[in-house]
């Protein structure tokens, strides 16, 4: 385990996606750090929780219905966060974005990738909580047992249709999370 460092701020902003590319890479660049990600992707059968979050119907036996990607995000060489992402195979099967980290749109982030198949992500919802770190997470995040982690259950939507959901885990000993949102709404048209 590494020596305890000063806690840093990790910004999460809905408007990062408007800049294009990976929101994590943009945040690491803001911090003058190089963002890296280790990942593995596979087809999988969604769990009941993931099915609910993605609005999927019942499973078709053990037939895969999502692409599951597990990530370890690093800033320079330090672990920053873990994430597991699920995207419905019905949306992305046999498209150039089927695998999030491979192909011509690799690493671009959900919003940019979905645009490539003419799906416009309109918003995201995040459910934030905290819990004790799990044993596998202590090794991956390089934190001691008993540490607290922030958990974020994020879902991206194209209007009412969920297009991706993810579980994100961040060490609260290392990071405080800052959220930013817009207060600007598009004009509703002529009201007179």
What would you say this structure looks like, in words?
- With 192 residues, the chain is α+β, with helices and mostly antiparallel strands.
- The chain has one domain: 3-Layer(aba) Sandwich (Chorismate lyase), CATH 3.40.1410.10.
- It has helices spanning 23-30, 48-54, 89-92, 110-115, 135-141; strands at residues 8-13, 35-44, 66-75, 78-88, 123-132, 148-158, 161-171, 175-180.
- The chain has a six-stranded antiparallel beta sheet with strand order 2-3-4-7-6-5. The chain has a two-stranded parallel ribbon with strand order 1-8.
- The longest helix is centred in the first third of the chain and has 8 residues, at 23-30.
- The chain is globular and about 45 Å long.
- 27% of the residues are buried.
- The model has no long low-confidence stretch (mean pLDDT 86).
- How big a fraction of the residues is strand? 35-45%
Query: How are the strands ordered across the major sheet?
Result: 2-3-4-7-6-5
Query: Overall pLDDT, averaged?
Result: 86
| Gap from first CA to last CA | 65 Å
Number of strands: 8
Low-confidence stretches: none
Shape designation? globular
Quick gist of this model?
By secondary structure, the protein is of the alpha+beta class.
Question: What descriptors fit this protein?
Answer:
alpha+beta; two-stranded parallel ribbon; six-stranded antiparallel sheet; 192 residues; DNA binding; Chorismate lyase; 5 helices
């Amino acid at each position: 385990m590494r020596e305890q460092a000063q806690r840093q701020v990790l910004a999460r902003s809905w408007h990062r996606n408007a800049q294009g590319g990976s929101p994590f890479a943009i945040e690491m660049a803001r911090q003058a750090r190089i963002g890296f990600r280790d990942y593995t992707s596979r087809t999988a059968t969604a769990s009941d929780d993931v099915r609910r979050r993605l609005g999927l119907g019942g499973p078709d036996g053990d037939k895969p219905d999502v692409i599951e990607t597990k990530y370890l995000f690093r800033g320079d060489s330090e672990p920053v966060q873990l994430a597991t992402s699920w995207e419905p195979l019905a949306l992305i099967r046999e498209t150039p974005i089927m695998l999030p980290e491979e192909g011509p749109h690799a690493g671009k982030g959900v919003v940019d990738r979905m645009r490539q198949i003419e799906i416009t992500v309109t918003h995201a919802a995040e459910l934030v909580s905290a819990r004790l770190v799990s044993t596998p997470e202590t090794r991956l995040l390089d934190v001691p047992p008993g540490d607290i982690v922030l958990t974020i259950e994020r879902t991206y939507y194209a209007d009412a249709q969920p297009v991706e959901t993810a579980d994100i885990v961040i060490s609260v000993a290392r990071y405080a999370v800052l959220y930013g949102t817009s207060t600007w709404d598009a004009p509703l048209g002529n009201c007179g």
